[in-house]
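Our preliminary data section would be incomplete without showing what the modeling component actually yields. Below, a chain of 465 amino acids is followed by its predicted structure, encoded as tokens that our downstream tools consume directly.
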Amino acid sequence: EPDGRLRYQLYQWDGPYVGLDNSRLVSDSAVRLVSHDQDGTVVFVAWSDGGNSVMTRGSTDVRRGTGLRGLGLTSAGAGVTSFAYIVKLDPHDYQVIGWTFWCTRWNNRANGIGVSTLNLATDGSLAVAGGAAWGLIQTRNHIGRSEPGGEYIAVFTPDLTGARFVSAMPGTGVAAVGNDNGATWGIGTGTVRGRPRILFASSAVEDANVYGHQSQTPTRNALQPRFGGGQSDGYLVVLDLARGSDQMARPRTQADPVPHRLTIRNAAQRADRLRPSTAEEGTVARLSESFPRHFTVDFEIRDTKGATWPNFVYGKPVNGEVVYRSAGSQGAFTIKADRWLQPNGDQSRRVLGELLERERPDITLTVQRFHGPRTERYEEQDDRGRTQRSEVTYQEAEAVLQVGDRRIPVRPQCTFSWNTRGRDGAAVLVRINGYMTLKGRDLGLRELANEDIDIRFTAQGYPPR
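Predicted structure:
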């Protein structure tokens, strides 16, 4: 807000939540640079040390990807290194309208890169500068000759799907030009005689050793074509963006995403990939608050039209157990979620925002018993017109959902995965996923009273200790 108060909390997902076995977006990640254009579009650069990063998700939805490919680069095959995510957010609803993963490529896999400076051109293009490990992907119009690494500058199309200019810049960036010692480039943008231009400003010496190759500092149409001596010279690069600018003026309007439903069909698997349970008859799985120490319970809550931001809440079991039976699992348990994601700032855009105006209520689910198994089968056509068959076996539960002081009888449809794997390879005896749809009024919502609200929960059981 203008007075400095927080308006909306974007990203900033809790570490324990993204560490859940059904998430594991655990690569260290942080926003490093933020800017905006004249229309208020937010652009930022995030750093991460891996590809399983929360930066692959939306600003208000940690369970859904952005739906954008950007430059088409991926982290496949990479070890631990530094990558960049470049993101644009709509100034009205703060959803992602431009996104790309940015890296170099070495030995047919992703390699590290960094971004130390960014700015938006008047035509919406994005200019960045930084340092790259070997394997910088340069455009044909790059300048100079050197190994593809070290200092570089780049300009991306407004929708972040193409590179207009990428070039290694050996011999540059030898002195800090900003408040941060890591900022070795400054970037200015503007219009000259109606033509959008970008000015990169840095420092330079005569040449540099880039991965064992002595490379001359590049110049083109320069007033001073060679190094002048001393510790460093000033160094400027001016790029004219007029050619092709009209076709790339703004990020293309994104179609409204198809609402993400939380129903039993989400759990369906291809019929040819189904595997029988490996659990032995009578196997007991315990749900306990004390073991394991990490969190194993989460709730995901969405309105079925996708008109509001979803809510995510997590916690631990209270008590209970589940017993494996070939004729259908049995048991009873209670789980509780009391930690809300993105709890700060204005909550009015979230599905349970009305409830969060007063407090952050605990969500408790008490499962009393399970009914016998049912199987649903589905058929649909893939992109190539082939019929794909899938199925899911589930059991309906009798349960009570409590949100704050409000108790709601529910009948979630639950799946059981026995002898599955968890974090760091640890064995999980059973993972239970449940799905249910309620009316907003059941949850105490006024504005969404007549709307359908989907809820998914997950809980895990372990061998008795």
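The chain has a mean pLDDT of 91. The chain has two helices and 26 strands. Preliminary results of this kind motivate Aim 1 of the renewal.
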